[in-house]
Amino acid sequence: MENWLLSGTVENWERAIADSTWGVTEKRKGSWEQIAKGDQLFFYATLPAKGMVGIGEVMSKFKQDKPLWKEEIQENRVKWPYRFEFHTSYVLSRPDWESKSIKLADIPITLKRARAGIIRLRRAGDVVAILERANSSWGLSLGERPKKSPTVHGQMIEQLLEIGGFDDFIAEKEYSLPDIKERVDVVWRRVPASVPTFAFEVHIGGNLDQALTKLKHAYDLWNSNPYLILEQEEKDKAESLLTGAFHQIRDKVIVMTTQEVVELHDSQEKDDGLKRRFGLR
Q: What is the DSSP string of 142-176?
């Protein structure tokens, strides 16, 4: 496990935490390539917070050509394409960012290094100093990485993103369906300029009709291959809808259980690891 300090504006951190996503520039691609699932992240917000406001953990990484942050949207271009999804272990409430953030003066990290956007904390002493300060300021325990159990829905999205990445697809979550102003949970695209080749909707509770409606639109709009991910006990209900209200896409939708996604992910992960080991990737 590695430790990383991420630095950005307050505005960008508000969006990043809301979307559980951080990104870096082409210049920092080397650092992005070294980041791995399970690495610990420290969130540093610049003025007016001017301090560390949270702790997270890397879940998956992906490249994306869709503007996310305000600056990107205003300029209509992607500045931080190398992105990764993170799980927030702890974050201060927004009103406390200025008053309770951990200042760099309290830990042995220079402001110049923090301005790099992403830096690896190579010295164990730096990490210990941060966690000690978090312990005293935020009531955390040294070395403890408080975290919520990820939801099944979140786990499925994370694994689908990783599976797409193993096969060199551009894997994205929350992809917009412009005609109905909805979002598909995950899509895979072959190249940046292409429409989604695969569209995945993860149904864990909630409205199954809505999930199938989004997949139907993805098929109608982009001719995407639609996939419905659900729990085993929901398969009969899905089949009933696919032979009834959604009969037009009955032969198009692939229904997979969450367990099947896990099995596919694990086999792909093992295959990817072996290929990297022998220089085939």
A: TT----PPPPHHHHHHHHHHHHHHHTT-EEEEEEE
